[in-house]
């Protein structure tokens, strides 16, 4: 897909360069002598050209451009119609999700990601509802318990034991 994206990028850059040359030639030639210039070039999609011109980073930021071309190929494989406006809206959505920092959305995402509360698991004895027998397991605790195949209740009980030992030695089973 990356190779296809690079080939597409070269084709787009070539088309842009041809267009720029044509504009310069038309501006330099007197109005009466203008003849239509017919050059063999790839057939381009007007919607694609409109989308590319509305995204000023396209063709300038190589990484984002390659990503956009890869997303283009992926959407076509998924069955999206390139003649539909939804196709280009989906490209915009996926680009913004991939590069939120380029669109000023990284701070919002950071806040969204940190608002998830830690999972609370009570200690092994459930007879006392006091808060001193409750343990907050962090995402790292959850990951480790899953990695080591330890039930969350057991992990929480051992973590509570260590927390209550307050730096003293304790046996963990």
Task: Describe the structure in your own words.
A two-stranded antiparallel ribbon has the order 1-2. The chain has 173 residues and is mostly helical. The radius of gyration is 29 Å and the shape is rod-shaped. The chain has helices at 2-28, 46-54, 62-78, 85-98, 106-114, 139-147, 152-165; strands spanning 119-122, 134-137.
Assembly type: single chain
How many DSSP E strands?
Answer: 2
Largest sheet, strands/sense/barrel:
2 strands, antiparallel
**H/I helix tally:** 7
Summed over residues and divided by their number, the pLDDT gives a mean of 76
State the end-to-end CA separation. 51 Å
Number of domains: 2
The value of Rg in angstroms is: 29 Å
Molecular shape: rod-shaped
Strand order of the largest sheet: 1-2
- The unreliable regions are 33-41
Summary, kept brief:
The chain has 173 residues and is mainly alpha-helical.
Task: Write a concise keyword list for the protein shown above.
2 domains, two-stranded antiparallel ribbon, mainly alpha, 2 strands, 173 residues
